[in-house]
Amino acid sequence: MPQYNPRNFAGFIITGLVAMLASPSGSWAANLGISGGLARTPSTNNAPTSGSNSAGVTGLWDPSDRWTFDGGWGMSLPRGGGDPANPLSAKEVQHAIHMLTLGATWVPGAGETTVTVDEDGQTDEDELPTHWSFGGGLSLSPKVIERTATTLAMQDTVAGKTSTYDAPMLLQAGSSSLGGNLWTSWETGGTSDFETEITLGAALSDVSSRQTVEEFIGRNGQLTTSAELKDLCGGTATLTKALAKSCKRLKPLLKAETATLLVVPISLTVAETLFRATDVSLGGTYYAYSQDPNSVGYFSLANQAKKAPNGETVAGSAASFGTGVAVAPFDWSTAASVSHKLGPVRMSANIGYSHYYGDIGHYTSAGLRANYKVAEHWRLLANVAGQSDVDTDGAATRSWSGGAAIKYTF
């Protein structure tokens, strides 16, 4: 697989944004927006309060009737979400996630006109409707290093008896993504009370993750770092039988788990404009993966096989845990939305349903959003949403979140 340098790619995107900003075209200054906001998810029985703070810059440049270029930078800083019951949660570290994007849209029929001459010899020039448009873009999320407190599921089998326990552990994960997309859209392009738009798109994302164990607390309550474990198990000193057994079981955790997953979502959306003020859309997305996303990037140790006195192979000790790559492993999803403009306010509502890859459950969501034009350049945005995550046993985890943002457009 070709290797890429995130710094060089980020520099390419930033250079493109600067070039558009420095363009003599006056349309750029009229399409530069700066926004910032926050979102919070209240605590539940299973999770503490979490959320994020965000900021972003977006720009649009129209060098001609047929071409439009856009770019942007967005930042999201996760807040909270740690498990206070885990003694290692105080060592959690969360850094801001950045996203850089560049895109282009080409409308081949834009700007074309037709000239007619009436019986009196008067000429009339009309702009032809545009039906087709094509676009594409690139996106980059540079590598982010995070430390998360989790648990290590330990299983011991002694004399045919199996016991399990959870060992607190501090996991360090670094992840990044690089992607691109292509799309085409057809619309009626008229000015009637009923207009239709159909969009077909496909994307490709390269999501990379590297996980390492930093610390863990064993069954005896003793804190051990990965460096100490490396020195203990990788040294030349003679180990006791008990220590040798522990090293054999835990040594695989010292090796970093590196994973790369290619995700290809293919989507189709149909949108209808009703009476020029109401928009209704219905869409679906199918996800293809380079490998099983449920098994990528997880620490997993197979049971250490033993020979019983009768010659049969029985399970030994085992340990597994992990968070995998940062992607929701959906198999397919569908969503519907409706929005209506009431003077300076545009209200919208949406619902969605997603089926997890491997038939391991489903995810549903619903939300409301308001966009209020305070003044010529100022916008206020607010939203509230609810989510429900259901596993294969039918157990549901429900939550809701709320957010607000302010946007200024030059």
Describe, in plain words, how this protein is organized in 3D.
With 410 residues, this protein is mostly beta strands. The protein has one domain: Beta Barrel (Porin), CATH 2.40.160. The protein has 3 helices and 21 strands. It has helices at 6-21, 226-234, 241-250; strands at residues 32-41, 50-61, 67-80, 97-106, 113-117, 123-127, 132-158, 161-187, 194-217, 223-225, 257-274, 278-289, 299-300, 306-307, 313-314, 318-321, 330-342, 345-356, 361-373, 378-391, 396-409. The strands form 3 sheets. It has a 14-stranded antiparallel β-barrel. A two-stranded antiparallel ribbon has the order 5-6. β5 and β6 form a beta hairpin. The chain starts with 5 loop residues before the first helix and ends with a strand.
Give me the secondary-structure topology.
Blueprint: H1 6-21, E1 32-41, E2 50-61, E3 67-80, E4 97-106, E5 113-117, E6 123-127, E7 132-158, E8 161-187, E9 194-217, E10 223-225, H2 226-234, H3 241-250, E11 257-274, E12 278-289, E13 299-300, E14 306-307, E15 313-314, E16 318-321, E17 330-342, E18 345-356, E19 361-373, E20 378-391, E21 396-409
Antiparallel strand pairs: 1-2, 1-21, 2-3, 3-4, 4-7, 5-6, 7-8, 7-16, 8-9, 9-10, 9-11, 11-12, 12-17, 13-16, 14-15, 17-18, 18-19, 19-20, 20-21
